From TrEMBL:
Transmembrane segments: none annotated. It holds the Pfam family Ank. This is Uncharacterized protein. InterPro entries: Ankyrin_rpt, Ankyrin_rpt-contain_sf. It comes from the Eukaryota. Keywords: ANK repeat, Repeat. ANK repeats lie at residues 23-59, 105-139, 174-202. Gene3D superfamilies: Ankyrin repeat-containing domain. The keyword Repeat applies. The keyword Repeat applies.
């Protein structure tokens, strides 16, 4: 009954199904946005039988696959809907129109699918099976791996993308890599996968030369610190103003009113792996600069850190 009513309404309205509404949506886009999983497939079927252009863009330059990828609903529903649209001719690989095209916000359908986090796998796999290009970059240079790392995506999908030739070292326009996003998010399995892929663990990711390892230490993400050390994180690398990773760890203590178990574990890890407790900040030829011990000793937590450093051979240079 609903199917017949929709057909009659379209046939007698005289309105093109491909024009934009006030919100900039075609009828197909609106069907996905506004109808539920029961009605939506029927409405789409009716629209397509009445010459709806399945590859038409919305006013915001969104392809129909972009709309599906960022819609709500269960992953099963979204996967089924994307598959039906692809079978009807939604083009996942046409420059300027398909899933590889960037929408008005500069993201492709694959990028939007990755924002579904742990549920992203089925949608991404469906798009890839129908020709979506995993190498597509969004407007600011991020690849799908950046999005998976940022939005807690499943490592098995990241592995699938890696096997398709996606570069795990790819930086965005700010120099940030998927490894940084995974480290900041505390996604240890993703960090390990990226390291196994041969990613540059010691590649600077900011203009101040910090690496993902510096961020893991600063954020006290113990498991990520362990994985990065296992894959060759450089304890002697210097970031901004010649600071070593121990200087950044001291700064983390400075922000704490008390010590923490995670910070203490990182202390032991860094020292056990050969961090120089007497390294001076800065690259001054005269040897001036502040040691890690000189920088600490203000808060109670820093006092604990200073005692730990001295017990491991740290000297004060003041």
């Amino acid at each position: 009954m609903q199917h017949s009513f929709s057909t009659t309404l379209i046939e007698h309205s005289g309105v093109s199904v491909n024009i934009w509404d006030e919100g900039g949506l075609t009828a197909l886009h609106a069907a996905i946005h506004c109808s539920g999983p029961t009605a939506c497939p029927h409405i789409i079927d009716v629209l397509l039988r009445h010459s709806a252009d399945i590859n038409a863009l919305s006013k915001a330059v969104q392809h129909i696959l972009h709309t599906v990828a960022q819609s709500g609903g269960t992953v099963e529903y979204l996967t089924r809907l994307a598959a039906e649209l692809l079978q009807h001719g939604a083009d996942a690989n046409v420059g300027g129109a398909g899933a590889n095209a960037l929408d008005g916000n500069g993201a492709s359908a694959l990028h939007l699918a990755a924002t579904h986090g742990v549920h992203a796998g089925a949608i991404i796999s469906g798009l890839l099976r129908h020709g979506a290009d995993p190498r597509t970059r969004c407007r600011d240079g991020r690849c799908v791996l950046h999005y998976l790392a940022k939005f807690t995506g499943p490592p098995d999908v990241a592995k699938q993308l890696r096997n398709l030739g996606l570069d795990p070292n790819a930086p965005d326009e700010h120099g940030q890599t998927p490894l940084l996003h995974a480290t900041v998010a505390g996604l240890v399995k993703m960090v390990r996968l990226l390291c196994e892929s041969g990613i540059g663990v010691n590649t600077p990711i900011f203009d101040d030369h910090k690496t993902a390892f510096f961020c893991a230490v600063r954020l006290r993400t113990v498991d990520a610190v362990q994985v990065l050390l296992q894959y060759g994180a450089d304890l002697h690398h210097r970031g901004h103003s010649g600071r070593t990773v121990l200087h950044y760890h001291e700064a983390a203590y400075k922000a704490m009113s008390n010590g923490s178990a995670d910070a203490a574990r990182i202390n032991k890890l860094l020292i056990a792996c050969g961090a120089n407790v007497n390294a001076k900040r800065g690259c001054c030829r005269q040897g001036h600069g502040m040691s890690v011990l000189d920088a600490g000793g203000i808060t109670r937590a820093q006092g604990e850190f200073a005692l730990f450093l001295m017990s491991n051979g740290a000297l004060s240079f003041r």
